[in-house]
Design goal:
about 230 residues; alpha/beta; TIM Barrel; 9-stranded parallel sheet; 9 helices; about 20% strand; globular
């Protein structure tokens, strides 16, 4: 229900503000990515009306269907799911950022398609900080090599990094993962001289800890839209 979404939005913003202030940060430095995957366009419209401007989606076909109608110019879509190289061309007209660049073949495919479309695209590197076998993302030790490939791709604009913490992890583990990504970013930023401001980390169950550890983007779905059907 729209009234529930509005109430959820108020609670989330309050929690973001409190977490940022605990870390002596400006709450405005944290972008809420409203994870609208599996939710209909009507819910996106309601969230937009509630003030959200950045939406996270993870399936190319769903993006194409959900956003087929014209949408406001200030509505931005982040690809937060694994991206198959053969679907890049279908995706490019809709998205502003790919948060899940995790392999060289994807860098090469993105560069090829972007060059064909005379387009540039902001990207984040997805890093598997926790080392879980089932998690997507480039291993931390290989992130530098992948970043340099992105830097060398003229149509890709690297803006930072994304990670997912282990589901249900305790606070110490969450902080280890989030701090690990921040430290990796700091090191690679210094090594390459490339500004890499974005740290997308933290979801509905752990975004406050992520903000305390430096997150600039938090991906929130369930806490905003409710449980998925």
């Amino acid at each position: 229900m729209i009234s529930d979404l509005r109430a959820n939005a108020t609670r989330i913003r309050d929690r973001v503000t409190e977490a940022a202030e605990r870390a002596d940060r400006d709450p405005a430095s944290v972008t809420i990515v409203a994870v609208s995957k599996t939710f209909p366009r009507e819910d996106v419209n309601a969230a937009y009306d509630a003030g959200f401007r950045v939406f996270g989606e993870n399936r190319v076909q769903e993006i194409r269907e959900k956003y087929a109608l014209p949408f406001p110019a200030d509505l931005h879509i982040h690809m937060i799911g694994s991206l198959q190289t053969n679907k890049i061309g279908q995706l490019l007209p809709f998205i502003d950022v790919v948060e899940t660049v995790d392999r060289l073949s994807l860098v090469e495919a993105l560069q090829h398609q972007l060059e064909r479309h005379h387009q540039q695209l902001e990207v984040m590197l997805e890093v598997n900080v926790s080392g879980e076998a089932q998690k997507a993302g480039v291993p931390s030790e290989d992130a530098g090599e992948l970043l340099r490939a992105v830097i060398d791709a003229p149509n890709l604009v690297p803006v930072g990094f994304m990670t997912m913490a282990p589901f249900g992890a305790d606070e110490a583990t969450l902080r280890y993962v989030f701090r690990g990504l921040r430290n990796l970013r700091d090191r690679l930023q210094e090594e390459t001289g490339m500004p890499l401001p974005a740290l997308s980390m933290g979801m509905s169950n752990d975004f406050e800890i992520a903000i305390e550890e430096g997150a600039t983007h938090v991906r929130i779905g369930r806490a905003l839209f409710g449980e998925r059907l």
